[in-house]
Design a protein that fits this description.
Chain lengths: ~140, ~110, ~500
């Protein structure tokens, strides 16, 4: 039987819009995570769901070409980020994972609180994006 | 409220153990998911369900909640996310390799 | 200075992350992981010496003070376990270099290996009950990865059961944590211990203690929760089976020893002397009976893990300094000898292509070194006097008689006899008798494979002949952990 190529114009057009919203919300969640609900884990899950919408709307090959990233590598990078953040405080003679934070004034955003928890969260974010997508794509690719 | 939660947790445990006893691979995988939800609710309920503000951030609240159970549950959720996804992949692979999702057929040697 | 004790957790973490990025380069992975494990071994020796000379080291992670933040504690027991686990880990890794197939090595074998070491090292070092759960999970998830690694039908089928029982146990662990938090209001183990002593709630605490015991017993393969062990340890390659056999169950035993000496010592008459001792007796007996009934090299060894785990718990159950010291000595002996035996099973499998004893024979003629090395470790396991097995069983059984626990001591003696029987069974089937393997198989070189195992055999002999200083050391460890005040004072700084 010849596979029928579906014409999901509605889905594809909407997906382009939706992922914009979902991605920006996921970044917001990542950054809000220090003192408010949010954080690396939930932000990462949100991002991976946004990318998954792309996979659903378009086929695997197109997206593989559009996002030529090996998601397993992302896990490694995220783990490095998270572990090295803790090590930095060791280099200054503080206990492992000691946090620092300060307030900075950045041109457009105004006064912002920057913490060393942020790179840690970023690491978690990468790990979650990488592992969630790897797991789902492994099963999806297998089913041919 | 605590009593209600206790009953709820009991029901979740009941359902999950019932599913775990079934012969279907996927049902067992879902059972572990439900089980972890049950224990997370337990972890939320046991220290007492409290209303109030987050401590440290605000100083002018009437009551504060204990943040520790929330942190613990969050960690436990992340762990159960990892374990569940791993289990699903494994169940899928088992199904692919053995071409069955019936645990009776996955017993292994017949003499045990 | 204090940051030193987090290195056994952080270093494999960082290197493991780098190894994920180097997934396709096997040589680089081998070199990096080899260096890492050797470094960890050196570090853990150094830590053991420092803690022995200068006392417990405590690190408050993130600079949060003790009862509120997570603490990492290196006391005598944890550095001792750390030393043993990294020894076993290093040797199994060097064995894995030669035996694990290249296709498997490319599938993130070494990152998973290092993540397993994070979990194990973390579980030994942490001073926080919830953190213990987290490190258990890190260890277990890595072990799920390693135990299905390669993905053969047998591995998938048996590992599924292994994963399910462990998930169930982990759920119970969280439930126990919830209850203990409701009772004591803290997660710091030293703080829990302090509050347990103040609170007069023997009933509720006994319940939580038993729940935790069930959790750790299912990880440590105690009666009646051992059924998953022999079949799931049969599937993976020899290096992994050896690592799991030598290491993983002992993490469960460490957790039992830690919680039942530090926190749950309010009702020793019931929890230790009745319950743990009874469970230990059944574990030993059923484990060894399982071993006697089997005719497969790896399965016999797996069943023996169960029976020997019983000895360790028996030492804890009798709960005199002598018995606990015996249990600690026994852990050292068991980890070294059991890893060596599993690796020998791997070597014979490499030669004959099977682990079925009935299809083997005459290895003594073609591979004498292998045969005699195996013989030394096997009789050491069975507890023949000049070797390490004797000196570790002797104090446990002796204190069993001293404390009037005659039944358990008798069971332990019987189990020792049956262990000797099944070890001799392996030796007579696999090494004596008519040669059953072909000429090509007979000329398989094993010198290089035996090289990583040699230190273990040497240690098994040293542990026997130098029993005096090592036993003094384990007695000191036992006395240290049996007085929880030491641990509490150094963590809470009172």
């Amino acid at each position: 039987m010849k596979p029928i190529k579906p014409n999901d114009m509605m889905l594809q057009t909407l997906a382009r819009l939706i992922i914009l919203v979902v991605l920006s919300f996921s970044i917001y969640l990542l950054l809000a995570g220090h003192n408010n609900p949010g954080g690396g884990f939930i932000g990462g899950l949100m991002t991976s769901s946004a990318i998954l919408i792309l996979y659903v709307a378009f086929d695997m090959k197109t997206i593989k070409k559009a996002i030529p990233i090996d998601f397993v590598k992302i896990i490694g990078i995220g783990l490095l980020f998270a572990s090295l953040t803790g090590v930095v405080s060791m280099l200054f003679g503080y206990p492992y994972l000691k946090q620092f934070f300060d307030y900075f004034t950045i041109p457009i955003l105004g006064e912002v609180e920057l913490t060393t928890a942020l790179p840690f969260d970023l690491g978690v974010y990468f790990v979650v994006v990488g592992s969630a997508l790897t797991i789902i794509l492994t099963i999806a690719e297998d089913d041919k | 409220m605590e009593v209600l939660m206790a009953i709820m947790i009991g029901i979740i445990f009941m359902v999950s153990i019932y599913l775990m006893m079934s012969r279907n691979l996927l049902r067992v995988a879902v059972a572990t998911l439900l089980l972890s939800h049950g224990v997370h609710l337990l972890l939320l309920t046991m220290p007492g369900l409290q209303r109030g503000d987050a401590p440290i951030l605000s100083f002018a609240a009437d009551a504060y909640t204990d943040p520790l159970p929330h942190a613990l549950i969050l960690t436990a959720i992340v762990i159960s996310f990892a374990v569940t996804s791993l289990l699903l992949v494994m169940a899928y692979r088992t199904y692919k390799v053995h071409k069955t999702d019936d645990l009776e057929d996955l017993r292994g040697s017949a003499d045990e | 200075m204090n940051n030193l004790i987090i290195l056994p957790i952080v270093i494999p973490f960082i290197i493991g992350a780098i190894l994920i990025l180097l997934a396709k380069r096997i040589t680089a992975q081998r070199i990096l992981s080899g260096i890492t494990m050797s470094f960890l071994l050196t570090l853990s020796i150094y830590l053991a010496v420092i803690v022995y000379l200068h006392g417990t080291i405590v690190l408050e992670v993130g600079n949060w003070e003790a009862p509120f933040g997570i603490v990492i504690v290196a006391d005598l027991l944890s550095t001792f376990m750390l030393l043993l686990s990294n020894l076993v880990g290093t040797i199994c890794l060097f064995f894995a270099f030669q035996t694990v197939a290249e296709t498997r090595e490319k599938q993130f074998f070494y990152p998973l290996y290092l993540f397993l070491m994070i979990g194990v090292n973390g579980a030994f070092l942490t001073g926080d009950l919830f953190n213990l759960f987290v490190f258990f999970e890190v260890m277990l998830i890595a072990s799920y990865g390693l135990i299905v690694h390669g993905g053969t039908g047998y591995q998938l089928r048996e590992s599924f059961k292994y994963v399910i029982i462990n998930i169930f146990a982990s759920a119970l662990f969280i439930a126990a944590i919830a209850w203990i938090y409701a009772i004591t209001g803290t997660m710091n183990m030293a703080h829990i211990a302090e509050r347990v002593a103040e609170l007069d709630q023997a009933g509720a605490l006994n319940f939580v203690a038993m729940l935790l015991f069930v959790v750790f017993a299912s990880k440590g393969a105690l009666f009646p929760l051992y059924f998953w062990l022999p079949r799931s340890y049969f599937g993976p390659p020899a290096a992994i089976a050896a690592l799991f056999g030598g290491l993983l169950t002992k993490v469960g035993i460490y957790a039992i020893i830690r919680t039942f000496t530090l926190m749950f010592n309010h009702d020793i008459g019931f929890t230790h002397k009745e319950l743990i001792v009874t469970i230990a007796g059944f574990t030993m007996l059923f484990g060894v009976l399982g071993a006697v009934s089997q005719f497969d090299f790896k399965r016999i060894l797996s069943y023996h893990i169960i029976s020997q785990v019983g000895y360790m718990v028996m030492g804890l159950g009798i709960f005199t300094p002598l018995a606990v010291a015996g249990a600690i000595y026994y852990i050292a002996h068991h980890m070294i000898v059991k890893t060596a035996l599993f690796l020998f099973a791997g070597v014979t499998e490499r030669i004959t292509g099977t682990t079925d004893l009935k299809k083997m024979g005459g290895l003594l003629g073609t591979h004498p070194w292998l045969a005699w090395f195996f013989f030394i470790t096997a009789v050491s396991l069975a507890g023949i006097p000049p070797l390490s097995g004797f000196f570790s069983k002797f104090p446990i059984i002796l204190s069993g008689f001293e404390e009037g626990q005659y039944v358990i001591a008798g069971v332990a003696l019987l189990v020792g006899l049956l262990t000797l029987f099944s070890m001799i069974k392996i030796f007579s089937y696999a090494f004596w008798g008519k040669q059953k393997h072909t000429k090509e198989q007979a000329s398989v070189p094993v010198r290089k494979l035996l090289l990583p195992i040699f230190p273990l055999v040497a240690l098994a002999i040293i542990l026997g002949f130098a029993a005096e200083p090592i036993f003094t050391y384990s007695l000191e460890v036992a006395e240290d952990i049996m007085d929880p005040a030491n641990y509490i004072d150094s963590v809470l700084k009172e």
